[in-house]
Amino acid sequence: MKPPDNTHPHELRQAALFWLSEPDPAHKAEGVRLLAQAWQSGNLMLDAQTALTANASIPGQPLKPELVPPRLVKRRAMNTMEGRATLIHALTHIEFTAINLALDAVWRYPDMPREYYADWLQVAQEEALHFSLLAGHLQTLGYVYGDFPAHNSLWEMADKTRADLLARMALVPRTMEARGLDATPPIRAKLAQVGDMAAAAILDIILRDEIGHVGIGNRWYGWLCRQRGLEPASTYAHLAAEYGAPVMRGPFNLAARRAAGFSEGELATLKPD
């Protein structure tokens, strides 16, 4: 799956853009795995100063799934194979989108510390693993990624915040992806209840890793606020209103949110159902 050496960038941010543009999901996931391996082996350089331009359509998307508004994504009963597959498919799509989000964070924003790029490459690698695990499990149910429609809300928020890294950190990992910390335990419980322990085990891996991913978002949001002399809580409220972020609705996984670095003050502002 690795492209020829003469087409494969040997600089991290250019390589992240290369794989972001890749439309084939399995190829993208494998490419990200190889990219992280090359970085960890010291075989990639980093140019943090150059402002890059995307020459191809991003993100690279397969022809399927069809992307529709969230209200048109059907929900089916968990006690049927198709219903369970629909849920697994939705989770698979979220993880595919999350690969793109992490790669976009690597290539798009220059002039950040080396640790920033390493953090988001690690996120991309782990999201690629999550995608591969879920896509493989979906196949055991008799379906493949692309068989059901999906929505694109995660990427839409990334696109809205593309011009400002502070807004991106505030509203993608700390808002959209943090919702996964709340949603994953009840979904896992439903899957376990119908006997799909393989899917439940995959969600255990995802929740563990996503705590770290949201934590990375919190880390760099705090770093950027300090760099710009901004107060984090009031700045977040302003950004959420400016960009139309979804209102947070409970129940909330407070333990996971604490582990991801949210302050007690932030947690106190969350309103349970």
Globally, the shape reads globular
CATH architecture: Up-down Bundle
Highest CATH level, the class: Mainly Alpha
Biggest sheet features: none
Task: Provide an overview of this structure.
- The protein is mainly alpha-helical.
- The protein has a single domain (12-46, 66-268), classed as Up-down Bundle (Ferritin), CATH 1.20.1260.
- Helices cover 63% and strands 0% of the residues.
- It is built from 10 helices and no strands.
- The longest helix is centred in the C-terminal third of the chain and has 32 residues, at 197-228.
Summarize the structure.
This protein has 273 residues and is mostly helical. The chain has helices at residues 12-20, 25-40, 81-108, 114-140, 153-160, 165-193, 197-228, 232-243, 254-259, 264-268.
